[in-house]
Amino acid sequence: MNNNMRGSMARLVAAATVGTLVVVANSASAAIVITQTAAAAPTYATSLTFDEPGTPTGVITPGAFAGIGLAELQAGDGVPIVDDLTGNFPWVGPGNSFFGNFGVFATWSTDLTEFAAQVWDPSGPATPFGGGLGVLVFHNGAQVGGGFFTPAWGGLGQSWFNITTTDGSVFDDVRILGFGFGPTTIVDSLSWNAVPAPGALALLGLAFGRSARRRSRA
């Protein structure tokens, strides 16, 4: 495990709170909200199910999904795997999933306002004495949200996580890590809403301006 991931583990331990509803304010009004549910979370504008045509399988490169804005998707042991896991974990469901020994670390090339995923990990109940699944949210390297949860495993528990923001809050990094014995984290059905890059907003404004001028001349 590299120093960055060791640091993530230390920050998870230091910052974690036991519970299933986490609101961490990063200003007087803005916040990151993390919820865990049994029902499917919303599907946002960009999605990744690992079953899309051309998706690599087996051991993949961390930047395999950079083309859709997910700059890096890494496993805690540095060996990210995409595969059909139903032979060993039938309750995960059909198709491919992402498997990360010692956690899943996702970083985007743009800021996000929402993120959802299905997550499994054998780490067991979240208690003040250990165990549980840590979900930590960062922006530009600074923690802006996080908490400990009891993860789903073996067909039991709440497998869906949804991260939302309020009043201009954003994030670009989500780290999911079990703190039980031998954590093996599985994620699937990722989706997110990205904040448009400034250049894209400028083009959108230019297109809108041209459209408005055409309507005024009509």
How would you describe this protein?
By secondary structure, the protein is α+β, with helices and mostly antiparallel strands. The chain has a single domain, classed as Jelly Rolls. The chain is built from 2 helices and 13 strands. Strands 1, 2, 3, 4, 5, 6, 7, 8, 9, 10, 11, 12 and 13 form a 13-stranded antiparallel sheet that branches. The N terminus and C terminus are likely disordered.
Task: Walk me through the topology.
Layout: H1 3-15, E1 21-25, E2 31-37, E3 46-48, E4 58-59, E5 72-75, E6 81-84, E7 96-101, E8 104-120, E9 133-139, E10 142-149, E11 160-166, E12 171-178, E13 184-194, H2 198-217
Antiparallel strand pairs: 1-2, 2-11, 3-13, 4-6, 5-8, 6-7, 7-13, 8-11, 8-12, 8-13, 9-10, 9-12
